[in-house]
Design a protein that fits this description.
Layout: E1 7-12, E2 21-27, E3 33-40, H1 44-48, H2 58-66, E4 70-74, E5 88-91, E6 98-101, E7 108-110, E8 124-125, E9 127-132, E10 137-143, E11 152-158, H3 201-209, H4 214-229, H5 269-297, H6 306-333, H7 347-354, H8 359-387, H9 391-422, H10 428-439, E12 441-443, H11 450-455, H12 460-463, E13 467-469, H13 472-479, H14 484-487
Antiparallel strand pairs: 1-10, 2-3, 2-11, 3-4, 4-8, 5-6, 6-7, 9-10, 12-13
Bound molecules: FE2/S2 (inorganic) cluster.
FE2/S2 (inorganic) cluster binds near residues 77, 80, 105 and 107.
Length: about 500
């Protein structure tokens, strides 16, 4: 029997056996978002012990589902909004209750009822595990939240901090081609500074923005996000009058700017290396963009809820992962041209500067124009690597693409939040087009990856036939003192990709 209409399908049951907890993002047809956490308490081994597991004999598994081994609750704590993805799960022997314990202040919430001994209560959702008669596959369904229609699942992501290793430090044999001092793991500053160690998320954000070495930037991002998720920071700190200010432009280490290879001259395998290098550079800026949106706009928007910081710390961590994946692939495929040997550009930061006056503009231009453009071009990039037979890079790029859909989703989520905050009459589509008109030059280029954009919340009416009208004078005014040349990087680097 089909589940009642108020349930939506989450996933085939078997696919939830890979991890014990997942983050879920739902979106209603009115653009309302809901973030949830799914806990699966039994291990894969438990299920493997079912003799007919491999055959997916579902009558037996239905009893597993009915044992309520899978729980869904709000992803943010009702106390002060902490991210519950790293909550501890505990069982109380006296009552038999199983609770999720918030990492920030240790309030416990019953996974079935949502009740806490503190008197607070979070929402929990009924979960059903049923066989889909259409394909005879056991699937997990959850009750939809109240207050919205036609909810759909737009993200199902395992909670995991598994990560590509930090990017290789530049111990490559560049001394003969690039006589600069290059940092090695031994010469990196400590991840946690020995003096004035950050205590809030805002302090970590500014420290990471000021960290020039990319390896250290990645390591600090991993550490800060882990501290945030596990409740080991004093606070987010965006409401503090002493929140530190982010730099206008994040510094870059000289050794990573004095490129030694002219992209047009590299051939064959190295043309893929040029592409990996260019992509890694974009990811390095993207790490900074994720921290910058928190550090720059957090203090000026004290009403931003913790969920905003959960989304953008996740983005910072993802971008760090992407940078590590790409630089690792670069080292593997072209050991003589590691990260830092080719020209890089900073055009993303130009857009960051142009939008530094307005959170709404930042979300529109960086996350819903630039990042959405990434969704359009990723399939073509992946195809180039596939044709070259580089399966490992294909796998890395597919991970990156999937993550980037969720980044555009976050952009859409907080852009619509900003519009709702300004009043019911502010239509997100109109507001977005207006931001692009004022803060972008030229047309918003296609061809568009309509499907991926739609998955992220960007329907065609957002971006079709859209032109930016920002004039040169206005652009220069917004850029103020920012000059790419001062950074030692170029606005654009012509990268010639070899056709295969
Ligand atoms: S107990 Fe969760 S935020 Fe305080």
């Amino acid at each position: 029997m089909q589940p009642a209409a108020r349930f939506i399908q989450i996933s085939p049951f078997k696919q939830l056996l890979t991890h014990s907890r997942f983050m879920l993002t739902l979106r209603s047809d009115a653009g309302k978002y809901h973030s949830l956490i799914l806990f699966r308490l039994s291990t894969a081994a438990d299920y493997a012990s079912f003799p007919s597991f491999e055959n997916e004999r579902l009558e037996k598994h239905a009893s597993v589902g009915n044992n309520r081994q899978i729980y869904v609750m709000e992803s943010t704590c009702p106390h002060l909004g902490a991210d519950m993805s790293h909550a501890d799960i505990e069982e109380y022997e006296d009552t038999g209750a199983t609770v999720a314990v918030c990492p920030w202040h240790r309030y416990d919430f019953d996974l079935r009822t949502g009740k806490s001994e503190t008197g607070l209560q979070t929402c929990t959702y009924t979960v059903e595990v049923k066989t889909d008669p259409a394909d005879d596959v056991e699937k997990v369904y959850m009750e939809t939240p109240s207050g919205g229609n036609n909810w759909r699942l737009v993200e199902l992501r395992p909670v995991s901090e598994e990560f590509a290793d930090p990017p290789p430090t530049s111990t490559h044999p560049v001394s003969h081609v690039n006589p600069v001092t290059v940092s090695t793991a031994e010469t990196l500053d400590p991840v946690i500074p020995t003096e004035n160690a950050p205590r809030t998320l805002m302090q970590w954000a500014v420290l990471i923005l000021n960290t020039a070495n990319p390896t250290l930037k990645v390591l600090r991002t991993r550490h800060a996000v882990h501290m945030f998720r596990t409740g080991k920071l004093d606070s987010i700190g965006h409401r503090s009058s002493s929140a530190p200010k982010p730099p206008d432009v994040p510094p870059r280490e000289d050794s990573y700017l004095r490129n030694t290879v002219t992209p047009g001259k590299v051939k064959g395998r190295r043309s893929l290396a040029v592409m990996l290098h260019a992509l890694a550079n974009i990811e390095q800026w993207a790490i900074d963009l994720a921290w910058d949106i928190m550090a720059r706009f957090g203090p000026s928007h004290p009403d931003l809820p913790p969920a905003f910081f959960s989304d953008f710390t996740k983005m910072a961590l993802d971008e760090s992962k992407h940078f590590s994946l790409l630089t690792s692939r670069l080292s593997a495929t072209s050991p003589s041209t590691p990260y830092g040997t080719m020209p890089v550009h900073a055009s993303l930061w130009e857009s960051a500067t142009i939008t530094s006056h307005s959170l709404r503009s930042r979300l529109a231009i960086i996350h819903l124009v630039h990042e959405a453009r990434g969704l359009d071009v990723n399939p073509g990039t992946i195809e180039r690597f596939r044709r070259a037979g580089d399966k490992e890079s294909v796998a890395a790029l597919e991970i990156i693409h999937a993550d980037e859909v969720t980044h555009v989703t976050s952009g859409h989520r907080w852009f619509t939040w900003m519009c709702a905050r300004e009043g019911a009459e502010v239509d997100p589509v109109w507001a977005f087009r207006e931001e692009v008109r004022r803060g972008w030059r030229g047309n918003v280029k296609g061809p568009f990856n309509v499907e991926a954009r739609e998955q992220a919340g960007l329907t065609r009416d957002f971006y079709e036939a859209l032109d930016g009208e920002m004039g040169e004078e206005e652009m220069q005014r917004r850029l103020a003192g920012f000059r790419l040349d001062d950074l030692g990087v170029k606005a654009q680097v012509e990268v010639q990709y070899e056709g295969k």
